């Protein structure tokens, strides 16, 4: 069962059996301030460890350049693997471009179905919780 952990004007962060889920809110422009607050909260939640993340990008949103850069740099420090849930080719294309240009240092895969994304992420769960980043490198 999904448990709400944090919510601000741009994101909802929850946990489902040890898996962290980040959902964008519909119709919101994600600014650097919103992104910074969300990443800070996620960092506190995971205790400076890397975790598998399910990113639900199925809601329409926009993100300014400063926020995109902040998330790419600082979010990647917390992610062991990322499954991105999309609903159309435009969202999928955006995710592919992110992977191509940002070259995340973790496995990254797109899905049209949340259950498939969760199944894929299971291989990156360790004792259904996170492990210290230094042990992952």
Q: What's the topology here?
A:
Layout: E1 2-7, E2 11-16, E3 19-24, E4 28-30, H1 32-46, E5 49-56, E6 61-63, H2 65-75, E7 79-85, H3 89-102, E8 108-111, H4 114-121, E9 131-132, H5 133-136
Helix pairs in contact: 1-2
Q: Can you summarize the main beta sheet? A: 7 strands, mixed
The end-to-end span amounts to 31 Å
Radius of gyration, whole Å: 14 Å
By DSSP, the count of extended strands is 9
By secondary-structure content and strand pairing, the structural class works out as: alpha/beta
Assembly state of the chains shown: single chain
Helix content bin:
25-40%
Task: Pick out the low-confidence regions.
Answer: 128-137
Overall pLDDT confidence: 83
**Strand percentage:** 25-35%
Report the total helices: 5
What is the element string, with H for helices and E for strands?
EEEEHEEHEHEHEH
Shape: globular
Q: What would you say this structure looks like, in words?
A:
- With 137 residues, the protein is α/β, with parallel strands linked by helices.
- The protein has helices spanning 32-46, 65-75, 89-102, 114-121, 133-136, and strands at 2-7, 11-16, 19-24, 28-30, 49-56, 61-63, 79-85, 108-111, 131-132.
- The strands form 2 sheets. Strands 1, 2, 3, 5, 7, 8 and 9 form a 7-stranded mixed beta sheet that branches. The chain has a two-stranded parallel ribbon with strand order 4-6.
- β1 (2-7) and β2 (11-16) form a beta hairpin.
- The longest helix has 15 residues, at 32-46.
- The chain starts with a strand and ends with a helix.
- The relative contact order is 0.17.
